[in-house]
Amino acid sequence: MLRRLALMFIFLLPIIMGIKLFAQTWIVPEENKKKVAPFRFTQEMQKKGEILYVKNCQSCHGLPGKNNFIKLTPLPGDLSADRVSVQTDGEIFYRITTGKIPMPEFRNVLSEEERWWIVSYIRTFHHKYVQPEPAKKAESTGKNVNLVIDYLKEKSKVRVTAYESLDKKVKSPLNGIGIMLFVKRYFGNMQLGETKITNEKGIATFDFPVDLAGDKTGMVDLVASVNDQSGNLSETRATGKFLIGVPTDRPSLIATRAWWSTRDKAPVWVIVIYSCAVLIAWGFIIYILISIFKIRKVNNPKYLSQ
Questions:
Q1: Per-residue pLDDT reduced to its tens digit, 70-108
Q2: Among 191, 222, 197, 210, which Cα is nearest to 107's?
Q3: What is the DSSP string of 116-160?
């Protein structure tokens, strides 16, 4: 028995050590390391970031500077430590955005602006920190922004070009425009990746998931929009249909039993529960009526005189 346990321990030890090493390895892409905040950090932002930190981060990382983080594997660590202070703003933002087990990802919980607020709060504990120059704002003259969507088949990337029509013939590319890319779904649009910033040619490129489902033929509806928090640009959108998805034969919304389908296609369990509830309600009503009838009969003088 002891020999068997020893063999199991020897077999499992490398696996456990490998899992622990993998959990501690967190490589941030170079492109994300170079990312800087789109605005100058202010005390107001830092206060908002503190509120968000307490709500979303303190339970694991503890209070910065107190070393009262929770004991997990890997250790969350104190975010005021030197190992964090030497990271770029882009690295910290990336880790907040994507997460890594056991840390959750916050891209669908907090907006991009809110994640930068948390970064600004964490930076208040890094005494040698000097904020890099914020990302340049869009070089726009205030006219409407135009977007064009293309698919680069050889690179499996979606290209969105932002430009401004200065006159009927001249199209000026817009540098520094935030672009978001979505794919249309039944109940709304699903965002693909993070907001991308256009380069000097007005181009932002997005990786397209190779396993993303399309319609029966593989057609996918894409929507590109401007992400402008300053309010200086017009809310612009561009749409495009591309045969780049995985062909998927999805039934119509009313073809199968579902909450949002027709009455005849309602889920069986809903029909059963509803029917039972109606029967119980009517049974209770009938019981009350019978009880009232019996009480009236008992109190009837004719019945008492017998």
A1: 887 778 899 999 999 999 999 999 999 888 878 888 876
A2: 191
A3: HHHHHHHHTT-TT--PPPPPPPP---SS--EEEEEEETTTTEEEE
